UniProtKB/TrEMBL annotation:
Name of the coding gene: miaB
Keyword Amino-acid biosynthesis attributed: no
Enzyme class: transferase
Gene Ontology terms for molecular function: 4 iron, 4 sulfur cluster binding; metal ion binding; tRNA-2-methylthio-N(6)-dimethylallyladenosine(37) synthase activity
Record's subcellular location: Cytoplasm
SUPFAM superfamilies: Radical SAM enzymes (SSF102114)
Protein source organism: Dankookia rubra
Protein name, as recorded: tRNA-2-methylthio-N(6)-dimethylallyladenosine synthase
Cofactor needs: [4Fe-4S] cluster
């Protein structure tokens, strides 16, 4: 009798900073490394490979990366002393923007790769084992990396992300994305639909479409024509078992009539939209190169709300862009009061090397930026609290995603992406059920299955579509 033994799995640890697109990319890097024996690990201790998937948007991204690399240098030495090897890779936007600096300051890094080259990872791992210095891949190749990545393998859970678009041509004054992720690129419709079907058959009930400029989507359809995001959403909404759709991040300039119509027509399209505006001042918006005015944004918000009256907005704001006066900042506060946001991300302006605004004159003093940000965040927090409180007493469907933080709780998401928990009922995970909200907490809601209708309110997920 012969016996076979499986080679030991190599441990892969990926640390992810930044946006949901980076989370998605980390999953795909794990997928591409699985066939050569790497299995995900929870910690970097003793790992055979560590990938730092970086984000350039937040402040001090580079400093954070180098302090992490300092810690990993020791971990790598410990592993080597024990007779093993740790492959260390830096991926993501900081790798793309600052590859040369990384290899100069941290020569113990084995691989530096930009976001368009993840499909080449297995080959790079092989090259790294032979190379004397770091292996670097930071091109923007013309080929479609999605054609070269394997089908997503990891079970997605009840909610899943799906990247449909990457890159940006808009060159906002403050943003590094056009430099780190390259020009806008949309995946063909067939590939998106196939991946969505696979996700649903693996248990996903909600899919969030991702793209740096997701509503600039213009993928090639099966009819050979360019499809916009509205048309793509309609096709996705036909997948049996897929109950909820979302998309992020959008640009006001790319909200077209068809997308607004999709919000009116598709019950699967959730009534919550992240639509960054950045400022309420037309002069600042022009200086930011945003390509829209405050009024344009208000008109779009009104039209979307007319199409879907329960739609709530989230947005991004920058306080203290170079040259912003107190009066111009006040115009941002006016816009916030006029729209009323359910949630928002706000930051004080901080220079990103290589972007036009970084070298602009009239930088706003730090203390002034701090004061403006505090005022803005207080207003946005009040609006978020008011929105959460406005849900108390309402009954609506909640998609249950897993156990809650406390024993005996089940957690879910409202249509407006608020976390909601209720006691017991773990059998609800993976289903949508009507919940009456009892209380609003600082970051979540709690409720009860809609009174007297527990059994028939639970809507089991439909049969998933074949992959
Ligand atoms: S549209 Fe968004 S991704 Fe593109 S440059 Fe502006 S902020 Fe950056």
């Amino acid at each position: 009798m012969t016996t076979t033994s499986t080679p030991p799995r190599k441990r892969l640890f990926i640390r992810t900073w930044g946006c949901q697109m980076n989370v998605y990319d980390s999953g795909r890097m794990a997928d591409v490394l699985a066939p050569i024996g790497y299995a995900p690990a929870e910690t970097p201790d003793g790992a055979d490979m560590v990938i730092l998937n970086t984000c350039h948007i937040r402040e001090k991204a580079t400093e954070k990366l180098f302090s992490e690399l300092g810690r990993l240098r020791e971990a790598k030495a410990t592993k080597r002393a024990a007779g093993g090897e740790m492959v260390l890779a830096v991926a993501g936007c900081v790798a793309q923007a600052e590859g040369a600096e990384i290899t100069a300051r941290a020569p113990w890094v084995d691989i530096v790769l930009g976001p368009q080259t993840y499909h080449k990872l297995p080959e790079m791992v092989a090259r790294a084992s032979r190379a004397a210095g770091a292996v670097i891949e930071c091109d923007f190749p013309a080929e479609d990396k999605f054609d070269h990545l394997p089908d997503a393998a990891a079970p997605p859970g009840v909610t899943a992300f799906l990247t449909v678009q990457e890159g940006c041509d808009k060159f906002c004054s403050f943003c590094v994305v056009p430099y780190t992720r390259g020009a806008e690129f949309s995946r063909p419709v067939a590939g998106v639909l196939a991946e969505a079907r696979r996700l649903v058959s693996a248990g996903a009930r909600e899919i969030s479409l991702l793209g740096q400029n997701v509503n600039a989507y213009h993928g090639e359809g099966p009819d050979g024509r360019s499809w916009g995001l509205g048309r793509l959403l309609r096709a996705l909404a036909e997948i049996p078992g897929l109950r909820r759709l979302r998309y992020t991040t959008s640009h006001p300039r790319d909200v077209d009539d068809d997308l607004i119509a999709a919000h009116r027509e598709l019950p699967q399209l959730m009534p919550f939209l992240h639509l960054p505006v950045q400022s309420g001042s037309d002069r600042v918006l022009a200086a930011m190169n945003r390509g829209h005015t405050a009024d344009d944004f208000l008109r779009i918000a009104d039209r979307l709300r007319e199409a879907r009256p329960d739609l709530a907005f989230s947005s991004d704001f920058i306080a203290g862009h170079p040259g912003e006066t107190t009066a111009e900042f006040e115009q941002t506060m006016v816009l916030v009061r006029r729209v009323g946001f359910a949630q928002a991300y706000s930051f004080k302006y901080s220079a990103r090397p290589g972007t036009p605004a970084a070298g602009a004159p009239h930088q706003v003093p730090e203390a002034e930026k701090d004061a403006r940000l505090q005022a803005l965040q207080a207003l946005l927090r009040d609006q978020q609290d008011a929105f959460n409180r406005s849900r108390v007493g309402m009954t609506f469907p909640v998609l249950f995603t897993g156990p809650g933080r406390h024993a005996g709780q089940v957690a879910g998401r409202t249509p407006w992406l608020q976390p909601l928990h209720l006691s017991g009922q773990l059998g609800l995970v993976g289903t949508e059920a009507s919940v009456t909200v009892l209380a609003a907490h600082p970051n979540s809601l709690s409720g009860l299955l809609a009174a007297g209708r527990d059994a028939d309110n639970v809507q089991p997920a439909e049969e998933p579509a074949p992959a």
